[in-house]
Design brief:
The complex is a heterodimer of chains A (231) and B (412). By secondary structure, chain A is of the alpha/beta class. Chain A has twelve helices and six strands. With 412 residues, chain B is an alpha+beta fold. Chain B has helices at residues 24-32, 36-46, 52-63, 78-98, 102-123, 126-135, 142-146, 151-176, 184-249, 254-273, 283-298, 314-333, 371-383; strands at residues 301-307, 338-345, 349-356, 387-393, 397-405. The longest helix of chain B is centred in the middle third of the chain and has 66 residues, at 184-249. The relative contact order of chain B is 0.05. The chains are: A alpha/beta (231), B alpha+beta (412). Chains A and B meet through α7 of A and α10, β1 and β2 of B.
Chain lengths: 231, 412
């Protein structure tokens, strides 16, 4: 539905078709939604399997060894986080992209901190979703505008927030600029044009932000995650 | 009060609104039609007669109800308390110097017991007693101990009152029966034995107490759950079912269905994830509301992201209106389904960006009569000390950038 949801360009989904098709696994407890995503992604990637429960998902992911797992945040028996932790313990090379209807900060941040490489909402367009999957498969990060907004909010300098590790607890000005443009709905190539930098540099900035988001001990991050007992 | 049977009598109440201690004197004064000061003075003077003043006061306090209409005022007139305390202390001192004897001490001990009993009695107002009776029919007094409302204050008052009564009783025993040769030590020993006995009783009844406590807690939790369920039911019934019915009736019209679903989604999201932001006096809430209005009116989707928040003043309200106008323009001219809005509150400014990827236009070629852009966006921002910049190219979409500097005096 949104042309800018993944921060990806419109054309990139088509490029993906020419290259080797990515192997994608779907985890969502709504069968109807899985069918929808499978149909949408069918031309862009190869959907190697799907699962509706945490236990099924863990065994099937390990069996099929996909490049990227599209992971629902909210599921019975521990949600996407349970799948993520179980799989990453033995298969750290599998990459996860969180996909959710929820916009709640604690859900998003919790899954990212557990190791997901990105987060998109379920209203994302098929082309953007395919682009996001490819980006995650390449080891880059994918931020929805709202996630970018959360991160800006969480890393806002507050007088009462102690900075234990400036390397992890603070964003550089450049990273902040990139996040702002992401939150404003800019695609990566538009950000590159706006800031006179290459797309690769934009990707590097976003990946750095993702690393800080996962590693930093800022109070706001742990609080968000703790609010729903995700830590 | 016996005369309460005859229809419209002036009833004697305590007057918590004008209280210094318990509102007894104020209530009496109002009832008798004499100045409050006089009644208070009388009570203090009566202190001199074997503590009769305190005794009377405690008795009135225990018996008199508060008027049903008046709410208890927490603002005691403490300035009056000190002179009366000094006066009372003076009278007592004079009495101790002038008269001696067991009669005086007995009076005071009785007064002390009365005050302690009064305190304990007041731990339970009528409403609470009714609740306890309902919750634990077999032992309503347990409610005194286990009710959670303001438990610490309760405990303090209970212990305070109990101490008063105990000291009074021990004192009485010592003073009244000197011929028994029970000294203070013996009395305290007796008291200890009594406590030991009480502890034994407590041990025996502990299982009952514990079960009752569990019942109380379970009932309270059930009440809370019921309230939550009622709230969810209200949302589901008033909104979701209504929307679903509308969707079924408009199943053929994809745009209407999408609009209905979107409006309902936004409403549910607001309820789930941003509790308490219903009021329109904060920026984030005002922006969300403007987005919702535009979505509803033009059947588009506004992806809004707001970072930070602040109170809405006149200038910020103008900023929100300008942003709304920008969204309306995008909805009407850009021919897109989605508009992005990003608002950020910084320490020195509030910025709002409204962006679409639609038709776009050449800003230099805009007709002079396009009031929307000139008056409602650029002009409005200028009038409130802000700036508006419009970047657009045909085929590349449009972005409206609004910036409102904040004066340093205002809290950001």
């Amino acid at each position: 539905m949104t042309a800018q949801g993944a921060g990806g360009g419109d054309g990139e989904g088509n490029e993906a078709m020419d290259e080797q098709r990515l192997r994608v696994f779907l985890v969502d407890d709504h069968a109807m939604f899985r069918a929808g995503v499978r149909a949408e992604l069918g031309t862009h990637v190869e959907v190697v399997g799907e699962a509706g429960t945490v236990a099924q998902a863990v065994s099937a992911i390990i069996a099929t060894g996909p490049d990227v797992v599209l992971l629902d945040v909210h599921m019975p028996d521990g949600g996407g986080r349970a799948v993520l932790e179980a799989v990453r313990r033995t298969h750290p090379q599998v990459r996860f992209l969180a996909l959710s209807v929820s916009d709640a900060a604690e859900d998003v941040i919790g899954l990212i901190r557990a190791g997901a490489r990105g987060y998109v909402t379920k209203t994302i367009s098929p082309g953007d979703l395919a682009a996001a999957v490819r980006r995650v498969a390449d080891g880059d990060a994918v931020f929805s505008p709202r996630l970018a907004g959360f991160v800006l909010d969480a890393f806002t300098a507050r007088p009462d927030a102690p900075v234990a590790d400036p390397e992890l607890d603070l964003l550089t000005n450049r990273e902040r600029e990139v996040l702002r443009l992401l939150a404003r709905g800019y695609a990566y190539k538009e950000i590159a044009k706006e800031l006179y930098i290459s797309i690769k540099t934009v990707e590097t900035h976003v990946s750095n932000v993702l690393r800080k988001l996962q590693m930093s001990n800022r109070y706001e991050l742990s609080r968000w995650a703790a609010d729903r007992r995700l830590v | 009060m016996a005369q309460a049977a005859t229809a419209p009598v002036r009833r004697l109440y305590r007057d918590p609104a004008h209280r210094v201690l318990g509102g007894v004197a104020a209530g009496l004064a109002a009832h008798l039609g004499v100045p409050r000061l006089a009644v208070r003075f009388a009570f203090v003077l009566l202190l001199g007669v074997n503590g009769l003043g305190a005794l009377l006061y405690a008795a009135f306090w225990a018996v008199l109800p508060t008027p049903p209409t008046s709410a208890q005022s927490d603002r005691r007139d403490r300035r009056q308390l000190l002179p009366f305390l000094l006066l009372g202390a003076g009278i007592l001192l004079a009495q101790v110097l002038a008269v001696r004897g067991p009669g005086l001490v007995v009076g005071w001990l009785v007064a002390m017991i009365a005050v302690g009993a009064g305190i304990i009695w007041h731990l339970s107002d009528a409403q609470l007693r009714r609740r306890w009776t309902r919750q634990v029919p077999q032992a309503p007094w347990l409610g005194v101990v286990f009710d959670n409302t303001d438990r610490r204050a309760y405990l303090l008052r209970l212990i305070g009152g109990g101490t008063c009564v105990m000291v009074g009783v021990v004192g009485l025993v010592v003073v009244v029966s000197p011929e028994l040769r029970v000294g203070v030590t013996a009395s305290v020993e007796g008291l200890l034995f009594a406590l030991l006995g009480l502890a034994g009783v407590a041990l025996v009844t502990a299982p009952l107490l514990w079960r009752t406590f569990g019942q109380l807690r379970a009932e309270r939790e059930a009440r809370i759950r019921e309230q939550e369920r009622a709230e969810v039911a209200a949302i589901v019934h008033d909104q979701v079912l209504h929307t679903l019915a509308l969707i079924q009736r408009n199943a053929g019209d994809a745009r209407t269905v999408q609009r209905l679903a979107r409006v309902q989604e936004r409403s549910l999201r607001g309820w789930l994830y941003q509790p308490g932001t219903g009021a329109g006096d904060m920026l984030a809430a005002a922006v969300e509301q403007a987005c919702a209005e535009v979505e509803q009116a033009y059947a588009i989707v506004v992806e809004s992201v707001v970072v930070g928040d602040r109170a809405v003043d006149e200038n910020v309200a103008a900023l929100v209106l300008a942003a709304r106008e920008a969204m309306v323009n995008a909805a009407r001219h850009a021919k897109v389904e989605t508009v992005s809005l990003y608002a950020e509150v910084e320490s020195d400014a509030v910025s709002v960006f409204v962006r679409d990827r639609g038709a776009g236009f050449d800003p230099d070629q805009v007709d002079r009569d396009r009031q929307g852009v000139r008056g409602s966006i650029i002009g409005r921002m200028a009038r409130h000390g802000g700036t508006a910049e419009i970047r657009s190219e045909p085929g590349e979409g449009t972005e409206v950038r609004l910036r409102l500097p904040l004066t340093p005096a205002e809290p950001a």
